[in-house]
Fold each of these.
Amino acid sequence: MSVVRSTGMPDEQTDVKGKWLSFEHTQSEPNSWYIYRKDVRLTDVPESLTARIAVDSKYWLWINGRLVVFEGGLKRGPARNATYYDEVEIASYLATGENTIAVLVWHFGRNGFSHVN
């Protein structure tokens, strides 16, 4: 998951400093679940902050114990590289001081109707 400020246009994302997170040894196993959690301290809360999230296959996002996204997921077209990510405005879920961001990922791990793993 990356958190960035941007216009949302892919060709203008030169400042993106996202990072892919995965468990390499279980990446292709069917029906796998992963939990990611990050604690961050903020001295102030920005007016706007966008999280860009791409997972294969579904995810749930919580910030400070509040469900922000229910069943988000990677969007795929018929071509393997025809994908994009969710953009979620998260500033209203953040607070000054400690914040906890948690993501639960469900990886189907098998071919779907619109793509091949």
Amino acid sequence: MMTSPTFLLLATLLLYLPSVSVANYCSGGGTVNSLAPGQKQQFTCSGTCYACLVSYTVSINPSATHTYYMNFLDNGGNYILDATSTTQGATSGGPSLFGDGDGKSDLQLEIECANSAGNCDGMSVSFGFVNCACAPDLYLHSSCSGTRDADCRTEPKTPSSICFSGDTTVHVQKEKDSVVVPVPMKDLQVGDRVLTNSNEKDPYMPIYMFAHIDKTVPTEYLQIYTTASITTAMPNTNFSMSAPLEISEDHMVYVVAKNGKTTGPVPAVSLKVGDLLLQKASQGEEEKQAAMVTMIRHVTRQGLYAPLTPDGTIVVTDEKLVASTYVTVVQTPPMPLLLHQADMVHVWLSPLRVACLLGGEWLTGTLCENNHNEQGMQYLVALGLDFAKFMDSRGQATRLLLVLLSVIVTGPFRILELALGPSYWNYSSSGGLPLLFLIVAVSCVMFRRTTGGRHGTQKRRGEE
């Protein structure tokens, strides 16, 4: 018998284990014997399923020939998978993904004998499903596979990668005819004008640099499905999904709160089923549009892409979801009430942004297009991430001091951007850096006149 101290120790340890969802993998089946034409037989598999990944096999005695219909039903008796008609031999299918996000339990496979004469018998049925989506109060840690349910826990997973997958689409405006076309991230180039969340009359802004780009490295992404990416192709609960958002765990997306207000961007790894993602509103519409997260999965793709835009946002997928072009750089923000991480990174990148957008072809090509390390990360961006990691390892006071010093260094460039206006990158076609130097020179002259004018009117010695 377990001693009291040992029992207490185990009980204490259990309190600190991460809470996970109960495994819902199920398998069902049986045999069909003496089923008359027109009669049905159902086999039940019990379990909770927010999004089911189903596989099945139906076998017939080789010496027999039968015609039958096969259907899948949910626990409410609703048909959720097309009927399959088979006359002889074995048939199998799956894995097929379907569900309605409500976590309904039980799944039934129905066999209906369709012989013109004679009973259906000598048939064996086997099927099963795994749950591939988390309940609204849980975070995804790993996807379903084989006979394993999705790993869902009460705490979010620690981010492990950055960027978008090459299959995620953006909206690119062609220069010649201003036609907007969807372009996969893997085909995006520096200089392409992409749709952003800017409130300006023209929300299309140029990609001025890739912070990170590697076309071959295998990378794990989150696949985020929303109500906007799921359409009902069949009655009731069958899924027919367009391309989801594929994004790294620490890349940030914009969320709409339950009260309708847009919050600052949050890391994708913190998303749960039921969260609302901000969508780009159509021109002329003031009301916010949002798409609800219905399922999150993991997927591995070849390549990674992190394009940067002047305003720090980019609109992705056919559903026009609004994402940040930035990632989480520190785990403990130094100024949570004064400066959001995305705003902080935006200020830090302002010198690089000004150089890329106003520096002319030579500087743009040298600094912004062809200046990446062996891992595909832009050298100055990599240096900035190292600085952020160093800052994150220090105390609160040191972090705050380092942020203030970095803002003092980079802040003037951000002020210059604001002074030049929201479309200042258009100056690059009419002078670029020389125009910038002219603006700085005029500013210096004006500053000299306003601060040193009274000294110039004073009489020098010997002139009295």
Amino acid sequence: MVEDGERPEEEVGAIVDCILVNYQGDSESRDRVAQAILAWAAEHPDEWDELRARCQ
């Protein structure tokens, strides 16, 4: 498990891509989604690991 705030940018990007399949919005909206995912991941590290495994 990774300490809070230490999730690699590529890993977060892969999760965002997995969730936002075929998303055509702007990069600002995508960044807001990434920040929301990081906040959630800090509160739910075990679920983050499961989500990361499903999105690989």
